[in-house]
Amino acid sequence: xLRFLSLCLLLIGVGLAQTNTIRVVAAADLxxxxxxxxxxxxxxxxxxxxxxxxxxTGKLYTQLMQGLPAxxxxxxxxxxxxxxxxxxRAEPGTVKLYAVGxxxxxxxxxxxxxxxxxxxLGPRILLDQRITRVAVANPVHAPYGRAGVTLLERFGLLRxxxxxxxxxxxxxxxxYYDTGPLRRGKPSFEFVYGENISQTAQLALTSTNIGLIALxxxxxxxxxxAGVFWLAPLSSHLRLNQTYVIMRGQDRPAVRRxxxxxxxxxxxxxxxxxxxxxxxxxxx
Length: 284
Fold this sequence. Notes:
This protein has 13 helices and 12 strands. By secondary structure, the chain is an alpha/beta fold. It folds into 2 domains: about 1-100 and about 240-275, 3-Layer(aba) Sandwich (D-Maltodextrin-Binding Protein, domain 2), CATH 3.40.190; about 105-230, Periplasmic binding protein-like II (D-Maltodextrin-Binding Protein, domain 2), CATH 3.40.190.10. The longest helix has 18 residues, at about 1-20. The chain starts with a helix and ends in an 11-residue tail after the last helix. Mean pLDDT is about 95; it is low at about 5-15.
C-alpha cells in the first residue's frame, strides 16, 4: 500500500513539474533579452521553469510543423506564426506582436582603428576596398537576413536580377542580386552566412570583422566590447514585426501567465534595454 501511495505521489509530482515547465522556442535575436525576461518571470513565479531553445525563425517553424514539442514560439517576423495558426498548429487568436526588431551594421574595433567607422560611414563602409567579406544571416530562413538584403538594396549596394521567393534563395545572394557595387575595386568579395542572427554575429566577431546583425545582439556585452555599430533607419529595410504565439493544445495556466508577462512593463523594460521598439511605440 505504501509503495502504491509513493508511486502515486511520484507521478503527481512529475505531472506538476511538466505542467509548470514552459517550453519556448525563439528566434536567436532574443538570445539575451528573452533569457533575462524568463529569469525575472521565474523569480516572480516560484516553481515554474522556462526552458528556451534559440534558433533560426524559419528552421524552428519547419520543426514545429513537423511536430517539435513546444508551448510558445517567438518569431523574428509576423509571417511564420501566422502560417502556424493557418495550418492549425497554433491556438487561434494568440498571434501577438511583442516587438519591432532593428538592424545594424557592426564593425570590429580593428576596422575602426583603420578609419572604417560605421557610425560615420554608414552603409558606405561596405564599399571600402578592405571589406571583402561580410557576415549576414541566411535569408532563406532568417528574417534578419531578409532585412539585411533589403537594407543593401535600399542603399544601392545590391540590385535584384532574378525574382525569387526568400525560401528559394538557396544558391546564395549573388545568384539573385547584382553585387557589383560591393565587388568594385576589390580582389574578391563574398557573403558569409550564419544559420541565425546569433551565429552571424559570431562570424562577424571572429572571422569577417563586419556584419549585418540585430541591434539586440549588437548591444550584448561581447559585441559592444569588440566593436561599434551603425543603426539602420526603420524605413531602410524589411520591417521586422516580431510576433509570438501559443502552440495548439498548450494553453495551460503557466503558459498563459508567461505569454501575458511578455506584455508587462517589466518585460518591456528588458526588450527596450536591448534596442527593441515596443508595440505602439514610435521613435523620438
